[in-house]
C-alpha cells in the first residue's frame, strides 16, 4: 500500500475509528463542518452586500441575461419556499428540478433548504426511463420542468408519469403547461407571498447535518444511484476547493458545467454564495460564448472539462476578448495535456489547474498555485485538507508504463485502486445502503473504482477506471492519458480506449481506440500510433485496432459507456 496524501493538522485526533458523533466533533473542530448552513450564507450576504451581483444567467437562444443581486435572491427564496408550502411540501420531502442553467434553479435550491426539503436536480436530457427511476426512488412530491428541451416534450412526459407515481402530486412547468400541470410563473413568481407570510417558514430550514441534496451518478453499469449529501459534507469540499486557490469575496466564477451536477451546483452556486462572490453561467452549451461572460463580469475563475477549455482557447484566438481578470482555469473530468495547459495560458493569460473528484465526494484533489507551473499536465493534485487519499495494490501485480515525457524522476510507477476518506464523503446512496456499504471499508476508506499512481508531490494521477484496466506483462495502460492524447490528434474530436478479446495479442487482449473523427479525412491506425509515439508514449500500449464512430455513447454526466463499446466491437481478432 502507498499513501498518496494524508491530511489533518498535526497533533489532532485522527477521525478514523471514532463513532459518528466523535468524528463529527473532530470535523467541526477542524472547521470542515459547521453549524451554519448555505441558507445562513445567503441571508448574511443579503444583509452585508444586498446589491452585489450574485447570479448572472445567460439565455443563449433568447439573447438575454437574467441577473439577481443577493437581496433579490433572498427575497425570491422566501417567495418560492412559500410556493412549495402551498403545494404541500413538508420537511423531508423531495423536490425534483429538471431545469438547465437558469436563475430559477438557484432560487429553487435555496427555497428547498428553506422549507426543509431535499432537492433532486435532474438534467433536461434525462431519458424517460431514467426520469421515472429517479422520481420513483425519491418519491418526489413536486417536479419542476420545461415544456420541452432539445425536441423532447418534457412537460408532457412528466405529467404522464404523474399518473404512474402516486407520490408525485404536482408538475410545475416553466412555460406553457399541459393539462394536469401548473404554470411555474403563476404559482412561484407572480405572487409576492413573502410580504405577509414569511413567518410561516420559521423553524423549517434544514440543519447542516440533515440530507439536503441527492445527486445521481452516471449509471454506467445499471440504474443510477442517488448520492445523498448534507450541507456539511458539501461545505467541507467547497471550502477546500476555494481555500486551495485562495478565493475570497472578489471571486467571480464562469461555470460551464450543468447546475444539476456537483461541479455547477456546489463548486459554482454554493461556493459563490458562501464567499459572497458572483457566479455566471449559460443555459445551453456554447463554449465560444463563455468568454463573453468572462469579459462582461470580470470572471476570476473559469471551470470546465478539457474539451470545453480547448474550445474557449480557440475562440479567444479567433475573436479576442478581455480576459485579464482571469486568475485560475480549473480543468476537471479528464487529464490535462501539456498542450492544453500551454494553450490556456497563452490564449487566456491564466494558469491551468487539474482537479479530480466525484459525486460521492465533490472535489478531492487539485493542483495548487504553489506547484510547478506545468504540474497540471502531470498530476491531478493533492487532497484538500478535509480528505485523505490512499492507493491500494490491485488484485494483480501492476506497474505503469509511461513514456519519458510523462515520467517523474525517481518515482515508483506502482498503480493501485484509489481510496478516499474524510469529511466530504457523502451520507450514502439513497435507498441503496448496501451498494454504498460495499465500497466503504470498516476504517472509513471509500473505494472510488479508479486506478491511480502517486505523483511525487503528495498527490495522485488518475489512470482510469479499474474495471476498464488493460494489463500487459503486469503493466497497466495509462488509459486516461492515451484517450486524451488520441483525442488531441488533428483528425479526432475525442476518443475512448477499450480492451477487446484477441487470440494473438499479449494476455489475449487487443487495445482498441474508438475515435470520433473531426471531419474531412478520417484518421488511420498508423496516424494514431505515430501521434502517440511523438507524444512520448511507449510501444507496449499503442492501439492494435481502430474503430470510428460519429459519437461516443455516454451517460448523462458525460462518461463514456465503455461496456457498450466492448460489446459492440468484441469480435475476436486473428
From TrEMBL:
Alphabetical list of Gene3D superfamilies matching this protein: 3.30.300.30, N-terminal domain of ligase-like
Taxonomic path: Bacteria, Bacillati, Actinomycetota, Actinomycetes, Kitasatosporales
PROSITE patterns assigned: AMP_BINDING
One Pfam family cited in the UniProt record for this chain: AMP-binding_C
Source superkingdom: Bacteria
Transmembrane spans: none
Chain intervals with Low complexity compositional bias: 1-17
Protein species of origin: Streptomyces chengmaiensis
UniProt name for this protein: AMP-binding protein
Disordered: region residues: 1-20
PANTHER family in the cross-refs: ACYL-COA SYNTHETASE, MEDIUM-CHAIN ACYL-COA LIGASE ACSF2, MITOCHONDRIAL
Signal peptide coordinates: none
Amino acid at each position: 500500500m502507498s499513501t498518496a496524501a494524508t491530511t489533518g493538522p498535526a497533533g489532532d485526533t485522527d477521525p478514523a475509528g471514532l463513532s459518528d458523533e466523535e468524528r463529527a466533533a473532530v470535523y467541526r473542530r477542524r472547521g470542515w463542518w459547521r453549524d451554519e448552513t448555505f441558507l445562513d450564507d445567503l441571508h448574511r450576504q443579503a444583509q452585508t452586500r444586498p446589491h452585489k451581483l450574485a447570479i448572472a444567467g445567460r439565455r443563449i437562444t433568447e439573447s438575454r441575461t437574467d441577473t439577481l443581486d443577493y437581496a433579490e435572491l433572498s427575497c425570491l427564496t422566501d417567495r418560492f419556499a412559500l410556493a412549495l408550502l402551498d403545494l404541500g411540501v413538508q420537511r423531508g420531502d423531495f423536490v425534483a428540478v429538471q431545469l438547465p442553467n437558469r436563475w430559477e434553479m438557484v432560487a429553487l435550491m435555496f427555497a428547498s433548504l428553506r422549507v426543509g426539503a431535499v432537492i433532486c436536480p435532474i438534467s433536461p436530457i434525462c431519458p424517460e426511463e431514467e426520469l421515472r427511476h429517479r422520481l420513483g426512488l425519491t418519491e418526489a412530491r413536486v417536479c419542476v420542468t420545461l415544456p420541452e428541451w432539445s425536441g423532447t416534450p418534457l412537460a408532457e412526459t412528466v405529467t404522464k408519469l404523474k399518473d404512474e407515481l402516486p407520490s408525485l402530486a404536482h408538475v410545475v412547468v416553466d412555460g406553457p403547461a399541459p393539462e394536469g400541470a401548473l404554470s411555474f410563473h403563476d404559482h412561484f413568481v407572480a405572487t409576492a407571498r413573502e410580504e405577509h407570510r414569511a413567518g410561516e417558514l420559521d423553524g423549517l430550514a434544514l440543519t447542516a447535518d440533515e440530507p439536503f441534496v441527492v445527486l445521481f451518478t452516471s449509471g454506467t453499469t445499471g440504474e443510477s444511484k442517488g448520492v445523498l449529501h448534507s450541507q456539511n459534507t458539501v461545505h467541507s469540499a467547497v471550502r477546500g476547493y476555494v481555500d486551495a486557490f485562495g478565493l475570497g469575496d472578489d471571486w467571480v466564477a464562469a461555470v460551464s458545467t450543468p447546475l444539476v451536477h456537483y461541479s455547477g451546483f456546489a463548486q459554482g452556486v454554493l461556493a459563490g454564495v458562501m464567499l459572497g462572490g458572483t457566479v455566471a453561467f449559460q443555459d445551453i452549451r456554447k463554449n465560444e460564448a463563455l468568454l463573453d461572460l468572462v469579459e462582461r463580469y470580470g470572471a476570476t475563475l473559469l471551470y470546465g472539462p478539457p474539451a470545453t477549455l480547448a474550445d474557449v482557447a480557440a475562440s479567444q484566438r479567433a475573436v479576442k476578448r478581455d480576459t485579464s481578470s482571469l486568475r485560475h482555469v480549473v480543468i476537471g473530468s479528464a487529464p490535462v495535456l501539456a498542450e492544453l495547459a500551454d494553450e490556456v495560458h497563452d490564449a487566456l493569460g491564466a494558469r491551468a489547474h487539474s482537479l479530480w473528484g466525484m459525486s460521492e465526494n465533490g472535489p478531492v484533489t487539485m493542483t495548487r498555485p504553489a506547484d510547478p507551473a506545468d504540474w497540471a499536465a502531470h498530476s491531478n493534485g493533492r487532497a484538500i485538507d478535509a480528505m485523505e487519499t490512499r492507493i491500494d495494490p490491485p488484485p494483480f501485480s501492476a506497474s505503469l508504463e509511461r513514456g519519458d515525457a510523462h515520467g517523474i524522476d525517481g518515482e515508483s510507477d506502482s498503480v493501485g485502486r484509489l481510496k478516499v476518506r474524510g469529511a466530504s464523503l457523502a451520507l450514502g446512496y439513497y435507498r441503496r445502503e448496501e451498494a454504498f456499504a460495499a465500497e466503504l471499508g470498516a476504517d472509513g476508506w471509500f473505494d472510488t473504482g479508479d486506478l491511480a499512481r502517486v505523483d511525487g508531490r503528495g498527490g495522485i494521477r488518475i489512470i482510469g477506471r479499474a474495471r476498464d484496466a488493460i494489463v500487459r506483462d503486469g503493466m497497466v495502460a495509462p488509459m486516461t492519458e492515451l484517450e486524451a492524447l488520441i483525442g488531441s490528434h488533428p483528425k479526432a474530436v475525442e476518443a475512448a480506449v477499450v480492451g477487446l478479446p484477441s487470440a494473438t495479442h499479449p494476455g489475449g487482449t487487443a487495445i482498441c481506440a474508438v475515435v470520433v473523427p473531426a471531419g474531412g479525412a478520417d484518421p488511420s491506425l498508423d496516424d494514431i500510433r505515430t501521434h502517440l509515439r511523438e507524444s512520448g508514449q511507449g510501444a507496449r500500449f499503442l492501439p492494435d485496432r481502430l474503430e470510428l464512430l460519429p459519437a461516443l455513447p455516454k451517460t448523462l454526466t458525460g462518461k463514456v459507456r465503455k461496456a457498450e463499446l466492448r460489446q459492440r466491437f468484441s469480435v475476436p481478432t486473428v
